[in-house]
Amino acid sequence: MKANDSEGLAPVLMRLRGSVQHYQWGGYEFIPGLLDLRNEGGKPFAELWIGTHPKSPASVEVSGETASLEDVIRRAPEEILGPAVSSRFGSRLPYLLKVLDARKMLSIQAHPDKRQAEEGFARENAAGISPQSAHRNYRDDNHKPEVHVALTEFWMLQGFRPLEEIARTIMSHPELVPVMPDLDGRLSAAGSDPEARCDLLRDLYGIVMRMPQARVDDILTRMISRLERERPADKSGHDFWALRAARTFRLPGGHFDRGIFSIYLLNLLRLQPGQGTFQPPGVLHAYLEGTTVELMANSDNVLRGGLTPKHVEVEELMHTLSFESGIAQVLRGDRVSSTETVYRTSAEEFELSRIELSPGESHSRRAGHGPDCMIVLEGSAWIRSEPGSLLLKRGGIVMAPDSLAYTLESEARRATFFRASVPDRILSRTRQ
Question: Does residue 332 have an active-site annotation?
Answer without folding.
Answer: no
